[in-house]
Amino acid sequence: MVFSGAWRTNRAGLRPRAGLVLAALLVPASGCAAEAAGPPLTIQYLERRIERPVPLNNEDPIPDDEGARGAELGLKDSNATGRFIGLSFSLESRIVQPGDDIRAAFRDLANPRFVVVNAPAEDVLAIADLPEARSSVLLNIGAPDTRLRDADCRKNLLHVLPSRAMLADALVQFLALKRWSRILLVAGPAPGDALYAEALRRSAKKFGARIVAESSYDPKGGDVRDTALREFALPTRGAEHDVVAVADEAGEFGASLNYNTASPRPLVGTQGLSPAAWGRPVEAWAAVQLQGRFRKLAGRAMRPVDWAGWMAVHAIGEASVKARSTDPEAVRAALTAPNFEVGGFKGRPLSFRAWDGQLRQPVFLLWPGAVTATAPIEGFLHHRTELDTLGLDEPESVCRAFTGRAG
Q1: pLDDT of residue 25
Q2: Does 62 lie in the same domain as 207?
Q3: CATH number where 218 lies
Q4: Rounded to an integer, what distance in angstroms lies between the CA atom of residue 166 and that of residue 405?
Q5: Is residue 390 a part of any domain in this protein?
Q6: Is residue 39 part of a domain?
């Protein structure tokens, strides 16, 4: 019997356990599915469409289907796995336009037991607080707000996308490793920019770096592409620093900071060397398989929210396989169990934190065309798992919605 290279990793990017390999060998050569073990498990996808600024420098805009195509691939993968033990899944999508009531859209969903939510934080909370959502499992793939994992956490809410705190911790760990500990911070005017900047301040304090100077920049009223050389001389001038960190989540000016800073320093943050859940250069741990399947499906590269959408549906599918059932209560119990682990093409098992519902996961530090490093960075230790050095650890979080869960 000859095994191909695909034996080394499964669809989730992890080496299969011996029992799983044996199970695979027992599948008939015809690939016939097992007899159905129950009705299909319906997964809902609910998205708030966001109006975004026109990108600079002819960069590709954020695709309108970011997140949705990832969830679609997650469905295909889950059905491919589940059919061998008689499990099947369906996906129903609902897009809410700007200005429309997302709570009404949620109420219109049929049997919303598992809902992948791609929406800003206020929408996520509005849904989570609905009486109709008490028996739902909501999987957040679009809101990085740390407060959703902290004071505004909810028991029915899990987070697949990394928080801003996790992204900032990943970046500052790398800076600490390089001994680039003096940071000049430039933030844009948007609320998300302020939150990103605050996450960087917190991470700098946590890992022994320093914000030596701060400035703000508002790109409105001009075309920074024509004026960058002189526009950024003042905002990037300050105390001696090792890097310039930028907080510009919408991409309105950050890319133009490259090579236009007052001193010749690396650019990090939302542009330059950027922490992210996923990106086009990610190939290790069999990620190239996932990248190829996604590109075939969507006709473009997989983005962070796409990965989160895939991961959310994939996690539900894996929980169903562990429960060997599509009964919503059985799947929910498996998904939220302390010992639940799932592969995500990130080199190690991923799991949900017991105290705030956040998915533990490595974070990539990306430069266009390459993965520079993967956090947690070697040397940053934790008594439970090094993954918990990223984001709010249990003593740091004021979330109490999950009290009573262990893990």
Answers
A1: 32
A2: no
A3: 3.40.50.2300
A4: 22
A5: no
A6: yes
Q: Where is average pLDDT lowest: 25-34, 209-218, 283-292, 324-333? A: 25-34
Locate all alpha helices (DSSP H) within 98-163, ordered by sequence.
102-107, 121-128
For residues 73 and 191, state if they share a domain: no
User: For residue 216, what pLDDT is reported?
Assistant: 95
**Residues 50 and 117 reside in one and the same domain:** yes
Q: What percentage of the chain exceeds 70 in pLDDT? A: 88
Query: Could you tell me which residues come within 8 angstroms of residue 382 by beta carbon, excluding any fewer than 6 positions away?
Result: 376, 388, 389, 393
pLDDT value of position 36: 64
The sign of the CA dihedral 85, 406, 136, 104 is negative
Q: Which amino acid is at 125?
A: L
14: left (phi over 0), alpha (psi -120 to 50) or beta: beta
Task: Report, as an integer, the average pLDDT of 32-54.
Answer: 83
Q: Is 75:91 a contact under the CB 8 Å cutoff?
A: yes
Separation CA 28–CA 26 (nearest Å): 6
pLDDT of amino acid 184: 98
pLDDT in tens, 69-93: 999 999 999 999 999 999 999 999 9
Residues 117 and 37 in one domain: yes
Task: With beta carbons less than 8 A apart as the criterion, state whether 186 and 217 touch.
Answer: yes
Which of 242, 276, 310 is the C-terminal boundary of a domain? 276
Q: Is the dihedral of CA 221, 225, 230, 235 positive or negative?
A: positive
Domain range holding 174? 165-276
Indicate the number of domains in the chain. Answer: 2
398: in domain: no
Same domain, 42 and 140: yes
Q: Sort 303 into a burial class: Cβ within 10 Å, 0-12 / 13-18 / 19+.
A: buried
